[in-house]
Amino acid sequence: MKFLNAQVQARIAAEINAAEKRTSGEIVAVVAPSSDDYLHVPLLWATLAALALPFGLFQFTALAGYTIYLAQLACFVCVALLLTVPAIRYRVVPRGLAHKRAHRHALDQFLSQDLHTTQNRTGVLIFISVAERYGEIIADDGIYKKVDPSVWDEALAALLGHLKKGEVEEGFVAAIRASTEVLEEHFPIGAEDEDELPNHLIILDGDDE
User: CB 146: neighbour CB atoms within 10 A?
Assistant: First the structure.
């Protein structure tokens, strides 16, 4: 993800550092190129296209069965190869499937990045999966005991609003600032507060990046 260059990463890290000077909450920002390779999706669409092709050929042509069979094979191969191109593949993934995989990835990252291990359970994950245009904010138990989940709606709306336009950097910045407002009200900075989790942007590897 070349657009997340050193300057962008530095800006996001600075936003997190500034936030954690105002709250005892721990904000962790994670971005993934994608949450799945979805390699089965091209095969599914190619199969459907190949199965549908004979109906039109039988209806509007006088081709022999063997020729139609060859056309089916060619259709399957061409559609499958076309949809393996990442820029096209992610556009044909059903939204429900994409969001399900991205949500599961976000939950995995919450555990992998140790957000559940802070002393007062005040970790907040801001997660973006770029290919799916998916964003999520997950707060730990210590926060949910004090803050109604609906309070995060504004922060999530800010995140998703930018993601819809492909603005990953601005999405993170807006979500961090909105989350800080929530955390500062309920979890102000303490005299002995420790920085327990990394403040830099965590960039995950991706198969197609």
Answer: 13
CATH class of 6-36+95-203: alpha beta
d(CA 45, CA 70): 18
pLDDT of residue 191: 61
Instruction: Note whether 12 and 31 are within 8 A (CB).
Output: no
Q: What does the buried/exposed string (b/e) look like for 177-209 if buried means 16 or more CB atoms within 10 Å of the residue's CB?
A: ebbbebbbebbeeeeebeebbebebbebebeee
Residue with tokens 């960039």: 203
Give the C-alpha distances (Å, rounded to integers) separating 166 from 61, 72, 119, 143. 45, 37, 35, 29
pTM of the predicted model as reported, rounded to 2 decimal places: 0.88
Residues 158, 163, 164: CA angle, nearest 5 degrees: 105
> For the chain, which residues score pLDDT lower than 70?
191-192, 206-209
Q: Give start-end residues of each CATH 3.10.310.50 domain in the chain.
A: 6-36+95-203
